[in-house]
Every structure is written in C-alpha cells, then in structure tokens.
Design a protein that fits this description.
Blueprint: E1 6-7, H1 9-26, E2 39-40, E3 43-44, H2 50-55, E4 63-70, E5 73-77, H3 80-88, H4 90-93, H5 102-108, E6 111-112, E7 119-122, E8 125-128, H6 132-140, H7 142-163
Antiparallel strand pairs: 1-6, 2-3, 4-5, 7-8
Helix pairs in contact: 5-7
C-alpha cells in the first residue's frame, strides 16, 4: 500500500518531532489538517454524501453545490435536504473514527484512508474501510472490531492532534 492511501502513525513517531511536520506536509491531501476527520483536498469522505449512507442505504457522491464546512473540512451532499439534515445534527451522520479505516483503528491503532464504497452502518453509526479486502475482514466480526476500535480511538485521536500542522 502506498503512503498516499495509508497513514501509519507508528512510522511517524520514528521520524521525530521535526520529521512529523515534514511528513504531514508532504502528504497533505490525506492528513487531518485542522480537523479530526479524514479529508482529501479538504473534502471529507472523498466527496461522498454522509447522509446518503443512512437515508439511501448506499454510497452516493455529493457536490460542492450542496456543501458546508464542519469540523474544519468541507462535507458534500447530493441534495439540499441531506445537507440540511447533516447541519441540524452532524454527529448523527459523521463517520466513526474520524472517517479513517475502522478496521485499521481497531486492529492496528493506525490511520488508513478510506474509500466511500467500503462502508457499513452498525447500530446507527457509519464506519468506513480502506478497500474491499479490509471491508470483507471487517464484515466478519463487526462487533468485535467496533469494541476494539472504541477502546483504541481515544489514543489514536490524541495522536492526530500531535501530528496536525
């Protein structure tokens, strides 16, 4: 996996404090920046509509025409109704673990990017994953991965704050 698609915090620590800034600056389009949410080019979910997963049961792309900024990144929506629903209650639709790969947070305590087509809604929460293979693994034990991810996320989230430039 190339670093353009995967962010591994374990390797970052080896770079040292100055190296961290250089690392994130070099791979800025997949970094948290001023947000706790994965974004590419400042757009969350690679432009997918987070409300679509819940209301339509599928991944649909949003558009900048129906967008808003929340938590430091742009969120795009397929319709104004989806945008308005998100704006009224963003935590109901925002992905878990900052939109980073749920499996990687749970199993490795690392940050991997995600693809909009690799997702699941479990007990009213959105989880995203890196690719089809990871999604298949995730689907084999969602409850176990969520339990481990929930335990690890506070530590991983603190590390995000350390590495943001």
């Amino acid at each position: 996996m190339d670093l353009d698609r995967r962010l591994a915090l374990g390797g970052i620590f080896a770079l040292g404090t100055v190296g961290i800034g250089a690392y994130w600056a070099g791979y800025g389009r997949d970094t948290p920046g001023n947000s706790q949410y994965f974004s590419q080019g400042g757009v969350a979910l690679r432009g997918a509509d987070p409300v679509g997963y819940f209301k339509l049961g599928q991944s649909v792309m949003g558009t900048s025409h129906f967008s808003l900024t929340w938590a430091g990144v742009e969120w795009q929506f397929a319709t104004s109704a989806h945008r308005d629903a998100f704006e009224a209650d963003p935590m109901a639709y925002a992905p878990q673990y900052g939109g980073y790969c749920a499996w990687a947070v749970a199993e490795k305590g690392l940050l991997y990017s995600t693809q909009p087509k690799n997702w699941s809604v479990v007990q009213g929460k959105l989880y995203l994953n890196y690719d089809d293979g990871v999604q298949e693994t995730w689907n084999s034990d969602r409850a176990g991965f969520i339990e481990r991810g929930d335990e690890r996320w506070p530590d991983v989230k603190r590390l995000l704050k350390l590495t943001a430039v």
